[in-house]
Automatic annotation (TrEMBL):
Domain Rhodanese: 17-104
Highest taxon listed in the record's lineage: Bacteria
Organism of origin: Romboutsia hominis
Annotated protein name in UniProt: Rhodanese domain profile
Residue intervals passing through the bilayer: none
InterPro entries found in the cross-reference section: GlpE_sulfurtransferase (IPR050229), Rhodanese-like_dom (IPR001763), Rhodanese-like_dom_sf (IPR036873)
Pfam (any one): Rhodanese
SUPFAM superfamilies cross-referenced by the UniProt entry: Rhodanese/Cell cycle control phosphatase
PROSITE patterns xref list: RHODANESE_3 (PS50206)
């Protein structure tokens, strides 16, 4: 089990190099639609448990989770880790700490 908390510069580099198998924005849909990381899908934090069947294919793959300020994504990483996920990443400071262009 590994949870990595990385700064926005490292996350941007990893996104640019297609190093993540899945990027999940755990904020509510309204926030996601206003701007999200490239290639991110939206699964709000309160729906993660409902999406475990979908997520199961990614148990041994690199998953980046992020939220607004970083605290909820760390907590969600812990939930996934308890459920057998092995390569989890969280954006330090959340999307507020991400210094690069967002997709809409």
């Amino acid at each position: 089990m590994s949870i990595y908390i990385l700064e926005s510069e490292k996350i941007k580099s990893m996104i640019d190099n297609n190093e993540f198998d899945l990027i999940i924005d755990i904020r509510n849909e309204e926030y996601y639609l206003n701007g999200h990381l490239p290639k991110a899908i939206n699964i709000p934090m309160n729906e993660i448990n409902d999406e475990m069947d979908f997520l199961a294919d990614y148990k041994d793959k690199k998953i980046l989770l992020y939220c607004g300020i970083g605290s909820q994504s760390k907590a969600t990483c812990k939930v996934l880790s308890i459920n057998g996920f092995n390569k989890l990443y969280s954006l330090f400071g959340g999307i507020k700490g991400y210094k690069y262009e967002l997709e809409k």
